[in-house]
Design a protein that fits this description.
Blueprint: H1 2-28, H2 47-73, E1 79-82, E2 89-92, E3 96-102, E4 105-110, E5 113-124, H3 132-146, E6 153-154, E7 169-177, E8 180-188, E9 192-200, H4 207-214
Antiparallel strand pairs: 1-2, 3-4, 4-5, 5-9, 6-7, 7-8, 8-9
């Protein structure tokens, strides 16, 4: 009788020991069926992609800032210069000279190449002989005459037009021929109309500088 109970107790103890081992193994090896634990779920692999995106965004922002700084630097050393013959002033960059050409017309030319220049004309709005549109149409006629009849093309890209504080309206056109490259703008300010005509070669590096200086005429 005693041996029978010993066998029963031994079997019962063995069952408890096996159950305890099974529970321990389940806790030590957390690979549950829902896939929320264990090595099967690996999220760190996505982290490098996030880092790359952040690097690209940072590089783009730095590039935009550098471009903006470069544009601002064009007028960094410019000097405000008043016309001797007309009622306006303009920021003149080093290497350029403003001179009165004839009544109502000034020339802003390149010191090393006087054939490359920008003609400047202004008129007070309360005394204007032409309206904004009429002066623009007349400018297109001047561009066509300068190129022996080449059809001027209106500039629709704002990046090619003078963009300065106080300019309320602006239109521009360009014309190309064997004689050279010609670009003109008509700008409207609160108190005056301004018309500029640039005479240069087709690939002239001064076009951007002339446009920047034109935006400061006031």
């Amino acid at each position: 009788m005693n041996n029978k109970w010993r066998i029963i107790f031994a079997s019962f103890a063995a069952s408890l020991l096996l159950a305890a081992c099974g529970t321990s193994n389940s806790d030590d090896n957390p690979s549950s069926t829902d896939g929320t634990n264990g090595s099967a779920v690996e999220t760190p692999a996505d982290e490098p992609e996030t880092d790359i995106e952040e690097d690209v965004d940072s590089a783009t922002a730095e590039g935009d800032e550098a471009d903006s700084t470069e544009e601002e630097d064009l007028l960094k050393d410019a000097v405000e210069t008043k016309s001797d013959a007309q009622d306006y002033s303009v920021m003149v960059m080093p290497g350029y000279t403003l001179t009165s050409e004839e009544p109502g017309r000034d020339s802003l030319y390149v010191d090393e190449d006087s054939e490359t220049f920008m003609r400047i004309e202004t008129t007070a709005k309360d005394e204007e002989a032409f309206s904004f549109d009429e002066w623009y149409e007349n400018m297109e006629e001047l561009l066509a005459a300068s190129t022996d009849g080449a059809e001027p093309t209106e500039l629709t890209d704002e990046a090619e037009l003078p963009q300065g504080e106080g300019i309320t309206n602006v239109k521009g056109a360009e014309a190309k021929s064997a004689e050279g490259y010609f670009k003109g703008f008509v700008m409207e300010r609160e108190d005056k109309l301004v018309r500029v005509t640039i005479y240069a070669t087709e690939d002239n590096e001064h076009i951007k500088e002339f446009t920047e200086m034109a935006s400061t005429i006031k």
